[in-house]
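re: the backbone from monday

yeah here it is again, tokenized this time
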């Protein structure tokens, strides 16, 4: 699907270029920044989806161990142009840049081959590349790791540099000899020597200049010192200059050969550079997404815009720097609610909400991830039309209202079922009643054409129209009715009051003037606005009451849990006390009986009778213990029976599962396996054998199988494939 081009006015109204500028800050190459400079919404839906997914893949790499390798490089655009021209020679630095790009792309190719399951879309950009070894190897033969040309770059260069070394050695020796001789004669100044035109010269006192053989190359400012090149050094310097010239010519020849070697690879190098630019472009968007906590919402094919916890990215970045809070918004447009009319007082956040919707949609259609909740949904609109801010046209001598009417005319022509329109202060700039009536007509046309949109307004007739249309709704920016401060929260489903007189009163306007103003306008409008304001106040109170009730409910729940814990502790204590009481009562009863027996024995001194009575008491107590133990054993037996029954049930379930699995395996085993296609070299064995051999040849339905010590003819149907030939 090909989309219409988004107008530059829309990009300007929604400050899209400011977002692009913030993304550019994350690019690390000049070419990457240039690519972002021309970033605009895509014309193809598939291109939008692919670039969003690519950015999501790159973003995911920040949070795992498989980090994408660095893509930093120096541009080779000028080198690519020179390669198109015959007989041109690249400079040494150019080869260093080409080498760097090849090594960098090779790393990416290897990385994405290894981790293509993690980055399937990014991998596609390297899929047609092969690891380039020839170019880096050719450059490495000529240059060392410091970017200097090696002596071994050619035999001729090796010989020239060998001679250069010998000549330089002779120059140093001859100069040192002259330095010693003339220094001993006290012809030299204290500094003894200097360097002029890359040549070592003697610092001769001017009075002795004629006594030193050589060529005068200069003198000091005062004229007290004359700088002379000794004759012996001069002869060797001529040879040195000739060798340096030969070296330059040989290097030029080597670089020319290397340039000609690169020339056929011009398209490959161009592709490498374009790939790295794309990676820088994608990485910059991913870094920006991480900064604003952005993601890719669910993209649907039907007209739906459902942003949950949506943030205005520019406001979010600015507030994060200052530590201020940013308020997210929830907004939903769909087939049953295509148009939303936002109302409420000024400075309540209506325009920011409108711009948030538009900017996020623009970013999405430009392949930029957006700061919304992961359950958000969005579609791709064919057109995005905006009318935001003071658009007075000075160059065309148009007033704000004239300009807006001209803009509305374009809206009326272009609006359709795949259009998103965003209008701030709809109908303003003219007589409220007349402008409001015209705005109402425009809104009806947008509605009839099936367009999707959001408008902000103070006009009551537009609020009433939104309430009457089936696929339109009101919304308002919440305002604290007591403090008259905005809460920056969007409430869908209800219109909002402008709080005109309340805000005026808060700002110190005397009540008599406000009352006088109320008398000047229609009572119905005052009542309508007052009713809306009253409803907002009631809603605010209900919200506060609901919040209090939730808090109270939570407190009651916590108290209930606390009381339950206390009650349990009391129950445990009561049980312990009851057991202690029963035990003490029992001990008292036994003590009383023992006391009675002791007294009886004291009276009659009859041991037999005492023992008999004691045994009766012991037997009675033991019989009680037996009853208690029997009862406990019965309870334990019942519990064990329950455990056994549960285990038997589980065993039965496992047994049934095993039977099902065995039956399934048997069914699978009974299925005839597909016969493999044998070829020479395959390792095989007989179905009922263990020895493994290899197929030497195949004739019709038989194969000659080589077992090492012997060969045999075997029917292909009797063979089982062990390992296919490579």
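seq for it, each position gets an aa:
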């Amino acid at each position: 699907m090909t989309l219409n081009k988004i107008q530059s006015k829309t990009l300007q109204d929604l400050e899209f270029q400011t977002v692009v500028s913030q993304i550019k800050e994350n690019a690390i190459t000049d070419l990457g920044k240039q690519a972002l400079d021309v970033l605009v919404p895509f014309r193809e839906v598939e291109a939008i989806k692919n670039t969003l997914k690519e950015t999501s893949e790159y973003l995911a790499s920040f949070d795992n161990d498989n980090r994408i390798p660095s893509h930093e490089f120096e541009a080779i655009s000028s080198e690519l142009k020179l390669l198109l021209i015959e007989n041109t020679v690249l400079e040494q630095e150019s080869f260093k840049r080409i080498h760097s790009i090849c090594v960098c792309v090779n790393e990416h190719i290897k990385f994405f081959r290894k981790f293509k399951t993690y980055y399937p879309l990014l991998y596609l950009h390297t899929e047609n590349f092969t690891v380039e070894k020839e170019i880096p190897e050719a450059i490495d033969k000529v240059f060392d790791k410091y970017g200097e040309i090696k002596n071994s770059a050619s035999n001729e260069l090796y010989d020239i540099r060998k001679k250069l070394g010998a000549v330089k050695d002779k120059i140093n020796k001859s100069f040192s000899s002259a330095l010693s001789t003339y220094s001993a004669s006290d012809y030299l100044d204290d500094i003894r020597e200097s360097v002029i035109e890359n040549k070592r010269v003697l610092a001769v006192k001017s009075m002795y200049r004629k006594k030193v053989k050589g060529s005068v190359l200069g003198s000091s400012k005062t004229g007290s010192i004359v700088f002379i090149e000794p004759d012996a050094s001069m002869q060797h310097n001529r040879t040195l200059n000739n060798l340096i010239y030969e070296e330059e010519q040989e290097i030029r020849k080597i670089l020319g050969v290397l340039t000609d070697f690169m020339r056929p690879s011009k398209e490959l190098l161009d592709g490498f550079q374009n790939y790295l630019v794309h990676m820088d472009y994608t990485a910059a968007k991913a870094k920006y997404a991480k900064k604003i906590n952005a993601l890719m919402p669910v993209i649907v094919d039907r007209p739906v815009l459902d942003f949950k916890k949506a943030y205005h990215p520019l406001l979010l970045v600015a507030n994060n720097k200052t530590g201020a809070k940013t308020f997210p918004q929830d907004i939903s447009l769909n087939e049953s609610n295509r148009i939303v009319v936002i109302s409420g007082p000024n400075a309540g956040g209506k325009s920011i909400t409108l711009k948030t919707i538009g900017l996020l949609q623009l970013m999405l259609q430009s392949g930029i991830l957006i700061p919304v909740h992961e359950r958000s949904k969005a579609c791709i609109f064919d057109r995005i039309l905006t009318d935001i801010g003071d658009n007075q046209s000075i160059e065309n001598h148009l007033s704000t209202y004239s300009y807006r009417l001209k803009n509305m005319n374009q809206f009326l022509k272009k609006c359709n079922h795949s259009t998103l329109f965003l209008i701030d202060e709809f109908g303003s700039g003219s007589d409220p009643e007349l402008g409001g009536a015209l705005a109402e007509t425009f809104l009806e046309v947008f509605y009839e054409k099936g367009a999707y949109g959001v408008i902000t307004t103070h006009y009551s007739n537009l609020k009433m129209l939104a309430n009457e249309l089936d696929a339109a709704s009101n919304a308002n920016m919440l305002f604290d009715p007591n403090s008259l401060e905005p809460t920056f929260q969007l409430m869908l489903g209800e219109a909002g009051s402008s709080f005109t007189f309340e805000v005026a009163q808060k700002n110190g306007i005397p009540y008599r003037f406000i009352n006088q103003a109320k008398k000047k306008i229609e009572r119905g409008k005052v009542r309508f606005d007052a009713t809306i304001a009253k409803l907002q106040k009631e809603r605010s109170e209900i919200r506060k009451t609901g919040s209090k009730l939730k808090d109270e409910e939570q407190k009651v729940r916590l108290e209930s849990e606390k009381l339950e814990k206390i009650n349990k502790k009391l129950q445990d204590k009561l049980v312990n006390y009851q057991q202690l009481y029963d035990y003490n009562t029992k001990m008292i009863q036994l003590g009383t009986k023992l006391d009675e027996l002791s007294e009886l024995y004291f009276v009659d001194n009859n041991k037999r009778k005492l023992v008999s009575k004691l045994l009766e008491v012991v037997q009675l107590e033991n019989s009680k213990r037996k009853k208690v133990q029997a009862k406990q054993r019965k309870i334990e037996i019942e519990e064990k029976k329950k455990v056994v029954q549960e285990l038997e049930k589980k065993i039965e379930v496992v047994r049934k599962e095993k039977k099902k699995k065995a039956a399934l395996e048997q069914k699978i085993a009974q299925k005839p396996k597909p016969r493999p296609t044998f070829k020479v070299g395959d390792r095989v064995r007989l179905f009922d054998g263990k020895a493994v051999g290899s197929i030497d040849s195949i004739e019709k339905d038989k194969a000659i199988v080589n077992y090492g010590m012997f060969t045999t003819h075997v029917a292909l149907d009797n063979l089982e494939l062990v390992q296919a030939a490579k």
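The mean pLDDT is 83. The two ends are 46 Å apart (CA to CA).
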